Structure formats: structure tokens, C-alpha cells
């Protein structure tokens, strides 16, 4: 199945009087759940879906805990995850405290496996609208 896109019109926010331009907008089409992953893994191995699901659940739970502990989590050649955030600026370094952190987010970095998969992915315009 290819990656699909729609076309969106966007104005230039810095030059509102310029005519808008049209851009490709990659859209999610379908989903894969943890259950789907477990079912797939069990279909290509001798391990039951329940066992695969237990391993995946415990693995992702550990990943979440380690990211929350400030670790960079390397998941083989697939991806890395780590915490990131934004904070308010202060005039002096000693004025910065944990209270200045406005938000936390997850930083996702694709690894070789995902990058290579995207290099060979097919792309097509979404039919319809």
C-alpha cells in the first residue's frame, strides 16, 4: 500500500497579499495496533500471539520508563527515542530552574531500517476529494 497525500492550499504568512500555493500533504491512511504487530509476529514464528503481546507490552513499558528517566533509548536499527522540551529564557544561567521548563515532548529519530523503508515507499495522490 502506498503513502497517500492530499493537496492543501496555504497562504504565505509573511506575504498575505501573495496568491496561495498548493502543497502535497502526507496523510495517515489506516493504522497498525500493538495487537496487529503481535498477530503478525506470531504468524511468522512458533510463538503465540499472547506471548508476543506480553513481550511487546513489557518492552514498550520499559521504553516509556527509560525515556521518562532521561535515557536515550536505542531500538536497534529501527529508531531512538528520548525526552526533549522547551523552556523560558533567563538572563543568567544560575536563574534557570526546573520551573522554567514549559513542556516536555518525545524526540523520535528513525534508524536505518525505517529510513531505508521510506526510500523505497510508493507515493500516490488520494483518490476522491
Automatic annotation (TrEMBL):
Disordered, as annotated region: 1-22
Keywords tagged on the record: DNA-binding
Xref: Pfam families: HU-HIG
Molecular function terms from GO: DNA binding
Protein name: DNA-binding protein
InterPro entries: HU-HIG, IHF-like_DNA-bd_dom_sf
Keyword DNA-binding attributed: yes
Domain HU: 1-125
Organism encoding this protein: Cruoricaptor ignavus
Amino acid at each position: 500500500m502506498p503513502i497517500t497525500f492530499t493537496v492543501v492550499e496555504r497562504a504565505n504568512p509573511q506575504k498575505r497579499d501573495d496568491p496561495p500555493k498548493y502543497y502535497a500533504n502526507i496523510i495517515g491512511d489506516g493504522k497498525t495496533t500493538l495487537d496487529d504487530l503481535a498477530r503478525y509476529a506470531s504468524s511468522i514464528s512458533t510463538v503465540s500471539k499472547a506471548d508476543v503481546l506480553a513481550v511487546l507490552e513489557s518492552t514498550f513499558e520499559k521504553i516509556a520508563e527509560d525515556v521518562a528517566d532521561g535515557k536515550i533509548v536505542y531500538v536497534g536499527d529501527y529508531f531512538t527515542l528520548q525526552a526533549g522540551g522547551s523552556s523560558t529564557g533567563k538572563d543568567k544561567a544560575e536563574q534557570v530552574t526546573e520551573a522554567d521548563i514549559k513542556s516536555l515532548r518525545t524526540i523520535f529519530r528513525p534508524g536505518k531500517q525505517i529510513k531505508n523503508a521510506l526510500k523505497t515507499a510508493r507515493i500516490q495522490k488520494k483518490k476522491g476529494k
